[in-house]
Amino acid sequence: MTVIVRFAPSPTGYLHVGGHRTALYNYLFARKHGGRFILRIEDTDQSRYVEGAVENLVKSLRAMGLDWDAGPDKEDEKGPYYQSQRLEIYQREIHRLISTGKAYRCFCSSERLAELRERQLAAGESPGYDGRCRHLDPQEAEKRALKEPHVIRMRVPDDGAMTFHDVIRGEITVEFSRVDDQVLMKSDGFPTYHFANVVDDHYMGVTHVIRGEEWLPSLPKHLLLYDDLGWEAPVFAHLPLLLNPDKSKLSKRQGDVAVEDYLAKGYLPQALNNFLALLGWNPGDNREIFSMDELIERFSLDRVNKAGAVFNTEKLDWMNHQYIQAMEDADYLKEARKWLSGIVLNDRGDAALLAVKSGLTRFDEIPDKLAPFVSRVSFPQEGEAAELMAAESTRTVLQTLKEKLQTQSLNNPAGFFPLMKGVQKETGIKGKNLWMPVRIALTGELHGPELNVIAYYLGNEEMIRRLEKALKGA
RNA sequence: GUCCCGUUCGUCUAGUGGUCAGGACUCAGGACUUUCAUUCCUGCAACAGGGGUUCGACUCCCCUACGGGAUACCA
């Protein structure tokens, strides 16, 4: 049996990192087993329609390096992959359920239901449908259905219990008395998630449903539906949730949750994938950095955790840093140049970009990191830097260096060290007193990238200009 | 409220009856370095609580507490 899995988001406008992790696990599982990975759009809620949401979703998923074998942009005979385009299928199946008595028409108004719920809550009962339309005469109901708005509910057994299996959580038993007569078809003719999901998974041949833990409580309904429809149910695996720092379900209110937000900050897709893969799953050894291929090779559902995981970006930062350091220079430069945001580098820009690499956590830090190379230097007025500039030896160092720069041109970073050695020899000043004044004069800062690269990038002319400026200030 | 799921360092996690409870991030200290960063070394830091079961429980069972999820004509 070939494995078929799916990622079935509702188009809310962006790809949620939690959703992406679900997608990733499905993808890894499919690829690991040589199976198929499907993308299906669950757009059954008309009131939630968001313009361009699907395009955005597809874009983010692709940017993250996932590809699917079938989906809204890759239709095949099992499609369409938009639920809103599968309405006839749901109609057909719901009629089967009605005819076998597994579902029934319900004419209760939403006002009555809201009232009912309120009353139940007030009385300390658990809210749920009271079954008023449960025993309407079928023929009568069909007649009313012609002109009255109504929904269609599933008929859950009155008593008994169901024991089912989840790959991650094991055996779970739920009593039917706790399961509500779920609405399957809404009054607008669209199916609810619960119904569309089961029908589509069946017809698309899904063998493993890997989804978030928020669906675990409704699994009995889904299982019942498979049974009522006479279908074999797939294997279920409910993933632990991604959490806010306060342990609640990861939400927009407490920080960025869209994949595109993280991409926009300069996290590398593979770093984000790697990080997310390890949030709720581990390979069983102490390794933490994995390529996509390695993740595919090592992924398995039985090493997925049960408990939710806090989405904490500290480790993501570290991981992104690792990925940046591991980049080939050419790749790094190509990427880094996308993040200049207006900064114009001279023809020695590559050297500057490379010099800044070791301290880079995210690519959006590039402009800041580049400041020592490109910003106009302001002379320090106070603090340690000012003190150093006021030192007696400083003037001598700067003056001597300036003179050397007037006669010897600097054509590579390595050339700066001998130059400074010359200054040291001539002035007898060394160590901190030699290097710091030069750094401050050239960059205005106490700290920064390697001075030899800064010197090379600036070139003789600019260095002389800055030294003169510093000499005047000093 | 009710049902379901969960609970190992601050965070991500390893661990399936006998371990000095391991690793990673963060943090602190140190080494290297002309600064910063990188890198390396060292250190701080955890089995929610209570009962069982057992010669022996982080590991198995029960209870409690706490956290989360679900309780919609949203997914």
Topology, element by element:
Blueprint: E1 4-7, H1 17-32, E2 36-39, H2 53-63, H3 87-99, E3 103-106, H4 110-122, H5 138-145, E4 151-154, E5 161-166, E6 170-175, E7 183-185, H6 193-203, E8 208-212, H7 219-228, E9 235-239, E10 242-243, H8 259-264, H9 269-277, H10 292-298, E11 309-310, H11 313-326, H12 329-336, H13 349-355, H14 366-374, H15 383-390, H16 392-407, H17 416-427, H18 432-443, H19 451-473
The protein binds one RNA strand of 75 nucleotides through helix 4, strand 6, helix 6, strand 11 and helix 11.
Task: Write up what this structure looks like.
Helix 1 (17-32) packs across helix 10, helix 6 (193-203) crosses helix 7 (219-228) and helix 16 crosses helix 18. The radius of gyration is 32 Å and the shape is elongated. The protein starts with a strand and ends with a helix. It contains 19 helices and eleven strands. 45% of the residues lie in helices and 9% in strands. It has helices at 17-32, 53-63, 87-99, 110-122, 138-145, 193-203, 219-228, 259-264, 269-277, 292-298, 313-326, 329-336, 349-355, 366-374, 383-390, 392-407, 416-427, 432-443, 451-473, and strands at 4-7, 36-39, 103-106, 151-154, 161-166, 170-175, 183-185, 208-212, 235-239, 242-243, 309-310. It has 474 residues and is mostly helical. The strands form five sheets. A three-stranded antiparallel β-sheet has the order 3-4-7. The longest helix is centred in the C-terminal third of the chain and has 23 residues, at 451-473. The mean pLDDT is 92. The structure holds one RNA strand of 75 nucleotides.
